[in-house]
Each structure stands twice: as C-alpha cells, then as structure tokens.
Amino acid sequence: MTTAETSTRGEFVRQPNRFTGRVTADSTSGPGEGPDDQGRWPLEAGRYRLVWSKACPWAHRAVIVRGLLGLQDAISVATVDPIRDERGWRFTLDEGGRDPVLGIGFLAEAYAATDPAYTGRVTVPSLVDTVTGQVVTNDYPQITLDFSTDWAPLATRSPELLPAELRPEMDALIEDIFQDVNNGVYRCGFATTQEAYEEAYARLFARLDQLEARLAGRRFLFGERITEADVRLFTTLVRFDAVYHNHFKCNRNKLAEMPNLWRYARELFNTPGFGDTVDFDQIKRHYYGTHANLNPSGIVPAGPDLSAWTA
Asked: Is residue 296 part of a domain?
C-alpha cells in the first residue's frame, strides 16, 4: 500500500516544503507590506510568529537557533499541542483553543489563508506573518540558515553558527546527517516493506558509527565551537532512546551505548538553549499517541530513565 509519502518500494518519502518565502533585510517591500516581486518579505522585529511543536525535531532546531542568536524579542513563538487530530496541529494549549496572536485554532487555517487549494500535510515549523495571517515559509532547512544570516541585524548574540570557512565541509556533513540520521529514523519507522526498512536501518547506523568515530577526538562536530550542524544532529539524538530506538525500530543499540555520541549529546543538552527547550513528555506523547499504525494501543512508555541527561 502506498500513500503520498510512500514509494512503490515501501520507502518513506518526505513531502516537499510548500511555502518557501524569505524574510530579508534587502526586501523592497515597506513595513507592513507583503513580499516583493522576488518573494522577499520585509525584515521587521515582532512581525513574524514561529509556530512549533515541542515534539518535532525539525521545529525544535528553529527554536534552538532563535535562542542561541538572541532573536526572542524579534520573533515570537506559538506552541501547538503535541497531539494532532485529523485536522492537524492545534492551538489547544492556549486559552480558548486559539493562538492569542494569530487568532486561529489550527495551523491549517494559516495554510488555507495562504493557499486555499493546498491539500498536503501541515507541518511545523512554520513562520507566519501576523499582519496578513499567511505562511511565509515552512522550509525548515532554510529557516535556521536565514536566522543566522538575514535576521542578523536583529540578533542580540553572534555565536557564528555558520562560519564561512567551514561552510563547504559543514554543508556536506549536514546533508549526510539529514539523509541518514534526521530523516533516516523516519525512513526506518515509516517503511512499509522489509527491504526499505533494512536499507534505511543500515544507512542510519553506518552514519552514526561514522559520527561516533568523528567525535572521538572532537568536542563538537567541528571542534570546540557549536555550529548549525550540531543543532541539527542534536534534535534527533535527544529523541533517540526515548522514541526512535523502540517506536521506529532503530534498535541496534541505544544512544547511551555509543560513548562519544552520548557524551556529546549530553554536553549539548546541558548547554543553555538546548536542554531547556526539550520536553520529553510532549515528545513521547506525540510519537506514541499520534501514529496509530505503529502503536495502535496509544500507550506511552514510562521510560527510559532521563536522569542521566543531567547527571
């Protein structure tokens, strides 16, 4: 059986991002206006709202980068309920079940306001314009890159997450991590044939073994500094033992059984901006509670013991 995100071989194929607008300092649009003729929205502090789920690794990294760069006052945040129904991400954590800024009950309403014909899956993170109520972008790989570049005039900190001299090597590593780890766990979990699952499983652990070896002599992926690559790897690693090991059948071993990756992940967790944005309860409730095909009972495991993250 195939779906919109399943190939004929039973492989999970992630849907493309529908909205790919950019907020840039060189937009020719004035304050309060929409995008210019090149699709560039004007850079304005307080205008755009980042919609995220604490459960979602793709959205999580946007919130981490926002915090590391000190963009909290420039970009507001809306948090959706970790449990989705057939209508998608809900603002049921807010009073009255509506986001207090956007005034909507479901993120899908912003999608419909932007493209009434859209029928794909509604995803987080989404950057929504509070003036028009439209989605600027749900292009999660680009959002964090833009925070470090186009949003720099509004940032209050400059940790150099994208050092120019490292970009060629970093971009290549980020792509490998995406294909085999970030998306690789999903390719394991949502595979519908044994062949597709085993291929994804082999690639996942081969890449983790390479990263384990890389970190044998490095504090972070590129030495002593935290970069964009570390953010992208962290959001998968922090969910690995709690969700992916069991729920997505990524069970060759646990993260805690890979000494270098485990040390690395815990150091990031205890770095301001990382662990303080992790909510294991919402992570577990989302994955185990919304994938009925993988967990029909909906039971959320009580473990694992999370105390080691801060030990």
From this structure: no
Tally of CB atoms within 10 A around 252:
14
pLDDT in tens, 4-59: 677 778 787 778 888 999 999 999 999 999 999 999 999 999 999 999 999 999 99
pTM of the model: 0.96
Beta carbons of 113 and 126 less than 8 angstroms apart: no
- Show the domain range for 46: 22-154
| Amino acid making up residue 262 | W
pLDDT in tens, 206-237: 999 999 999 999 999 999 999 999 999 999 99
Mean pLDDT, the chain, rounded, equals: 96
- Tally of domains in the chain: 2
Q: What is the DSSP string of 243-280?
A: IIHHHT---S--GGGSHHHHHHHHHHHTSTTTGGG--H
Same structural domain, 142 and 248: no
pLDDT (0 to 100) of residue 1 = 36
- Give the Cα separation of 149 and 166 in Å (integer): 15
Residues 149 and 26 in one domain: yes
- Residues 249/191, Cβ–Cβ less than 8 Å: no
Give the C-alpha separation, 135 to 106, whole Å.
13
What positions carry a catalytic annotation? 56, 186
Q: How far apart are the first and last CA of the chain?
A: 45
> For residues 105 and 97, is the Cβ–Cβ distance under 8 A?
yes
Q: Sign (positive/negative) of CA torsion 261, 267, 271, 276? A: positive
pLDDT band at 161 (very low <50, low <70, confident <90, very high): very high
Task: Write out the two tokens for 290.
Answer: 């919304």
Q: Assess if residue 191 is contained within a domain.
A: yes
Please name the amino acid found at residue 142: Q
pLDDT tens readout for residues 171-184: 999 999 999 999 99
Choose among 249, 118, 271, 137: nearest CA to 191.
249
